[in-house]
Amino acid sequence: MAEQPAKKQRTHPPYELLYHPGIPGRGEFIRLAFEVAGVPYTDVANEDKDGGYSTVQGICMNSKPSSSDDNPPVFSPPALRIPGAGRGGKALVIAQTPNVLSYLGERLGLVPEDEGKYYVQQLALTALDLNNEVHDTHHPVGVSLYYEDQKEESLKKAKDVRENRIPKFFSYFERQLKWNQEDGKGKYLVGGKITYADTTVWQVLDGISFAFPKEVEARRGEFKELFEFYEGLKEEKGLREYLASERRLPYSMGIFRHYPELDRQ
Amino acid sequence: MAEQPAKKQRTHPPYELLYHPGIPGRGEFIRLAFEVAGVPYTDVANEDKDGGYSTVQGICMNSKPSSSDDNPPVFSPPALRIPGAGRGGKALVIAQTPNVLSYLGERLGLVPEDEGKYYVQQLALTALDLNNEVHDTHHPVGVSLYYEDQKEESLKKAKDVRENRIPKFFSYFERQLKWNQEDGKGKYLVGGKITYADTTVWQVLDGISFAFPKEVEARRGEFKELFEFYEGLKEEKGLREYLASERRLPYSMGIFRHYPELDRQ
């Protein structure tokens, strides 16, 4: 865990992130929220190498009518467990990445205090839609099939995502930066300080840069302000330390994969 | 518009749904929330046949740094416009289906007053994920291509979604009904009265029944409690009247499409 100021340690519950070990994945959006807020959390499967993943599986991947502690079932990780925050003083367990971010946003100070919190969630949901579309470039026709068994379809899907979808999303993010220019100065998407919209859009840009390096290199000039935002956020307090730490896991065979044949040729 | 009790008309702002005309689409999840809550709304593109869709396009499909009224840009419809609810007394415009449902949930009485509101959002997000996967059965490799140009890929994708994904989601929804048995009596997914989780899951079940009638017929016995919930909700106040009205639009060439070759053979 990152060292945290003692004050913050006392005012937050012991948050537990429940996710697969060894990959950034969708868990990364939640990690980034904690890291930029400077609030401690336990990454259960990565920190407890012995029994951590069994705990995650028991809560998030069971076939019972409850995840744990009388909470409803979870469709799939990531989930967040917060001892003491649920009904009757039990643990609260909630799932779905944008839902967890919405819960944490208000509690970690990562949203404006007014209606702006809906602008933040709107951006995060849209970035997560792009995240899903990029995932589908290597799994267009079968979630449970190997990439090698859907390679022809992947070539078509990746072409459509790179040529049509990525510029549409990038243009939208850039218009958002322009909308927020007065408050955000090109550094933030909503308001004058960091929100989980910034970290979520950043992570998707980072993953796409890993998956499609040639495509991104070719488009940097076209989306100059977006990539200035991307580079600038790496210097943000909390994020800089995190990216240099061992907690930041490398991309491998998760959502963002680098298959050279799917990139711009 | 449905007739509404005068009391409710006075206590709600004049909600405006901004969406494409003529199809249920993602706008339907928002329509259903208003209809079961008995709260008036204007379906801009469908009610104003002359200029309504121009208004939607001008707000949700422009290329400017703002949607309207100083709100940030919208990636795509649906969006919700609420005159007077934004900063400085202007209109608030928010987009992304689950974000709009989250906003409305608390204001229309469609979520529990405690942490249960996160259970509702978790379910709605998961149902909307299934909605997207079913959309992709007819557009697996190119959002901007015709179905006819990706028919071979669609056959593979539809097979995977019908055989692997639909039973996984249906099993999850059914476990949720079991979790809530004491409060919901099999009628509701969270708590003892209707929430937007119920309407959202219902709409996805309804759309899948249209798209894949043979698949659903074959699985009714396997997911008996889920289809009892589905049939039962049609009798819910607000929903029954709506389904019998002209406001309920037929499925056609939107998210849910009936291509017999993609159904179980």
List key phrases describing it.
homodimer; Glutathione S-transferase Yfyf (Class Pi), Chain A, domain 2
Model description:
The structure is a homodimer of 265-residue chains. Chain A starts with 5 loop residues before the first helix and ends in a 22-residue tail after the last helix. In chain A, α2 links the parallel β1 (15-18) and β2 (41-43). In chain A, α2 runs parallel beside α5, α6 (116-136) packs antiparallel against α7 (151-179) and α9 crosses α10. By secondary structure, chain A is mainly α. Chain A has a 4-stranded mixed sheet with strand order 2-1-3-4. Chain A has helices spanning 6-11, 27-37, 44-47, 52-60, 97-107, 116-136, 151-179, 181-184, 196-211, 213-219, 224-233, 239-243; strands at 15-18, 41-43, 79-82, 92-95. Chain A has 12 helices and 4 strands; from the N terminus they run αβαβααββαααααααα. The first copy, chain A, is globular. Chains A and B meet through β4, α5, α6 and α7 of A and β4, α5, α6 and α7 of B.
Task: Please give a quick description of this structure.
2 copies of one chain form a homodimer. With 265 residues, chain A is mainly alpha-helical.
**Strand tally of chain A, please?**
4
Question: What would you say the CATH architecture of the largest domain in chain A is?
Answer: Up-down Bundle
Helix content of chain A: 40-55%
- Rounded Rg of chain A: 19 Å
Q: Find the biggest chain interface.
A: A-B, 53 and 53 residues
Beta-sheet strand percentage of chain A?
A: 5-15%
Instruction: Please identify the structural class of chain A as seen in this structure.
Output: mainly alpha
What count of domains describes the coordinates of chain A? 2
Quaternary structure state of the chains depicted: homodimer
Low-pLDDT segments, ≥5 res of chain A? 1-9
How is the main sheet of chain A built? 4 strands, mixed
| Separate helix tally of chain A | 12
Q: Label the overall shape of chain A.
A: globular
User: Under the CATH scheme, which class of the largest domain in chain A?
Assistant: Mainly Alpha
